[in-house]
Specification:
The chain starts with a helix and ends in a 12-residue tail after the last helix. The protein has a single domain (3-371), classed as Glycosyltransferase, CATH 1.50.10.10. It has 15 helices and 2 strands. Helix 3 packs parallel to helix 5. 54% of the residues lie in helices and 1% in strands. The model has no long low-confidence stretch (mean pLDDT 97). A two-stranded antiparallel ribbon has the order 1-2. The protein is mainly alpha-helical.
Length: 383
């Protein structure tokens, strides 16, 4: 790895840890509920959900890095430190006797963030599940099952219930429910519109939920349980190809300056918009027209443009509501401080070894940068 590439990876790592520190350090001390500010739209009541949101959405992005042993001695020391912090955080959030015990059972929102939580555990099964002691594992199972008393909304929420069941299947719980998984898989096949895009429910919304939720959860859902039923296995290849096509679209949305369109709801999740693109980089199955080093170059510019905007963090290091800086007016009624930690999903490629081409190959201009500078670039083709 060149000095320049090392510096880029270090920038990604330090950016992720800057986002993570207030959440994990306060959970270690069991002071999250006491200390964490909960910014939200006036007139909404999101305090009861914000803490599980922050933990689950942060870990879903951090998990691959936590799971992958590093060949760099300093980074490995950091990784081990944060693995321990993450396990302490899971304990604090799922222990009924903890002041930071999180809401898994009241209202509907916990279905969402329990799914993000178990998605993190599926992405780091050794560090975030196997290394938990039996007491914490039992608390996690009880917390996860507490979400099953309510039905999800007829939308991307079907995938939340499905992923919860996939986690229970993965950890050996005998009462996992294949029907919740089957319904989600078959319903999303009906909601597929073409060219890598799903409708989020019966009506299409032009937003980034294909990346926030739909593609990453569908792919990982079928990677987890696909072998259980023939029709699930048969649908997996198409699901992955659709997701890869959406990754191509995402890469082309990144401007030469590292900006992207502020379209649709939930844009306060900032560069979490690019979870699908980051996911395929992590999986090492990027479409042939996307070189891993061009994704690194594009996403690095996106992270810089976004994180370095004044007002992105409070004086004490918490993320604010905003797309580029502090813009509370874009915080919808379901968004609070905890919600915006889904931005951590952009950091999935930190789960790749430093020797992987994503990190080791020389920098490469991304599609829009080449296109808008008069250079050769590949024409786009639909799926």
């Amino acid at each position: 790895m060149t000095v320049e590439n090392y510096q880029v990876r270090e920038y990604w790592l330090q950016s992720m840890l800057k986002i993570a520190n207030p959440v994990l350090l306060n959970l270690k001390d069991r002071t999250l509920k006491k200390v964490m500010p909960v910014e939200m739209k006036e007139g909404t009541n999101r305090e009861q959900f914000a803490h599980l949101e922050a933990l689950s959405r942060l870990l879903v992005g951090m998990a691959p890095w936590l799971e992958k042993k590093s060949g760099d001695r300093e980074e490995e020391a950091l990784r081990l430190q944060y693995c321990e912090l993450a396990r302490l955080a899971i304990d604090a959030g799922t222990d009924p006797n903890s002041p930071d015990y999180m809401n898994f059972s009241n209202d509907f929102q916990p279905i969402v963030d329990t799914a993000f939580f178990v998605h993190a555990l599926l992405r780091a099964p050794y560090e975030l599940w196997e290394k938990l002691d039996d007491r914490v594992k039992n608390n996690v199972i009880l917390a996860v099952k507490a979400t099953r008393t309510r039905k999800p909304i007829f939308s991307n929420w079907l995938l939340f219930s499905a992923l919860i069941e996939a986690f229970l299947y993965k950890v050996g719980e005998k009462d996992w429910d294949p029907m919740r998984i089957d319904f989600a898989v078959k319903q999303f096949d009906q909601w597929y519109l073409g060219d890598g895009v799903y409708s989020d429910g019966p009506e299409f919304h032009y937003d980034y939920y294909n990346s926030f939720v739909i593609h990453p959860m569908l792919v990982d859902l079928l990677e987890t349980v696909g072998d259980e039923y023939k029709e699930w296995l048969e649908s997996k290849e198409a699901v992955i190809e659709r997701s890869k096509r959406y990754a191509v679209i995402q890469e082309r949305l990144i401007s030469p300056e590292g900006t992207f369109p502020p379209v649709g709801r939930s844009i306060a999740y900032r560069f979490g918009v690019f979870q699908t693109l980051a996911h395929h980089a992590l999986r090492n199955d990027l479409p042939s027209e996307l070189a891993p080093e061009q994704i690194r170059s594009a996403l690095t510019q996106v992270v810089k443009r976004t994180l370095e905007a004044p007002g992105t963090f409070t004086d004490t290091g918490w993320l604010t509501l905003g797309f580029c800086g502090h813009q509370p007016e874009i915080g919808e009624g379901y968004i609070s401080t905890g919600s915006v930690y889904l931005c951590a999903a952009v950091f999935l490629p930190l789960g790749l070894a430093v020797s992987d081409p994503f990190w080791s190959n020389p920098a490469m201009e991304w599609t829009s940068k080449r296109a808008w500078s008069g250079k050769s670039f590949p024409i786009d083709q639909c799926l």
